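S.,

Sequence below, as promised.
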Amino acid sequence: MSKYLITSALPYANGPIHFGHIAGAYLPADVFNRFLHQKREDVLYVCGTDEHGVAITINAEKAGVPYKEYVDGHHKTIKAFFDKLNIRFDHFSRTTIAEHYPLSQEFFTELYKKGLIKPAVEQQFYCPKCDRFLADRYVTGSCPKCGAPDVRGDECTKCGEWLEPSKVVNPTCKVCGSKPEIREVTQYFLDLPAFEPKLKAWLESKTDWKPNVKNKALSLISEGLVKRAITRELSWGVPVPLPEAKGKVLYVWFDAPIGYISSTMEWAKLKGQPDAWKDWWFGKDVKLVHFIGKDNIIFHTIIWPAMLMGQDKPYVLPDNVPGNEFYNLENRKFSKSEGWYIDTDDFFSKYSVDALRYAIASNAPETSDSQFLWEDFAARNNELADTLGNLVNRCFSFMKKNFDGKIPAQGELTAEDKALLDAAQAAFDETGRCYYGYKVRQAASTAMAFAAAANKYVNDTAPWKLRKTDLARCGTVLNVATRAIIDAAILLYPIIPDAAAKIMAKAGAACDGAPEFKPYAESLDGRALGADDSLLFTKILPEQVQAEVEKLKASAKPQA
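The prediction came back faster than expected:
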């Protein structure tokens, strides 16, 4: 059997994260992780905050707090947000842990010894007003390829072009807005062209990758890779392990992915098995899966694999990189600075976490950009209430009223009963393929279609009528319907885990941990239903949607 090592892109400890981040890198990973647990696979899901880089130094200085104190606060806030959304990591770490620094320096040293990292003089933007060299993301201007305005210096978020900061048109300093000047500085460069043949062969072997990910990486190779500077002049970061490089640190995009390994090392140490991390990073049977947004495709399909290939130790290469597109908010990008965002404390005081997870999963940005629309969120919430919640409520309340709170015995099955049970098996087969194939949107649709079929079965068989004419047949219908309800909960567990667990407890089928991903096979005859009579989901009314949209528009700054 394979072992699955799952990661999500490390969130940057420079501010809160929003639903757009969740849709791209975290909910899909959490869904996959939960599904693998249901399949009883051997799986480990690690993540952590990315805590170095010039953006952190600048904002910490603005706030007047030490760098470590600054990232401590954001690490805590980000982890709390993940907890609220029920994103369940096996270990959530950070890039300021003790294990991270020597490991990052080891990566650098191995590449340097092989001549794959070399010093060279480069022209870099320097802001005289701020008196500092500007990191790529602190140079803004127009994209030299597509002309998009206000792009950052390392990548155009509109066309995806990988940029050199010096090529940005009409550059300005993001900090103070003044025009930077070019100065020469010695940096250390990773020789990516040396990896081209190996990277190309490896990428071409990936027949099951998403086309948007694979094609982007291969197109970069076909255009010709360039050497990339991996050091910067900063006091905050992993020091470059060379005497002649005093005052330089590893550039944040170099040390950040190493955080996947260092977090696994910390996890192993906390387990009391300090070498256990090697089973995951050196094992031939390990499938390493990186969940990312499309702005991280370059780093996870080109730079990070090259870094791994350049090590003497037998690190596993990514088995898959299911990169997702962007997830926006009401036709604009999420932006707290522009007032175009959702206050999460306010949101979760009124709405269900599982409803949000289902709404995002049902409209996941898997093949193209998608967005959070208040109207769509209400529709998805109401779909859960009408299709799943209503099915559970009417069947279970009926049994509590007419069958002493117990599930009646199953009698002889009709063709109608068998058709629903057969549909359950088909739903497990298809939904399982979707989960394994990183198609969360299709998995949600397939699973909910089965819940709708169970609803239709109850409507067509009308147990409330059968109670007066054929009590035994009424009992069989309710028994079959309850089995279908449990199956729907198991199918949807990766997406709506709390609601799924609640449904199973209501049905007297509570389980410890993830329910196994297969049709429920235990006898339900005479089983007592759970005592909980609360509704699973509360419907959202049109006037609530209108109020939320108006509130969003009122908080937004005018677009330029």
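The chain is about 45% helix and 15% strand.

Coffee later?
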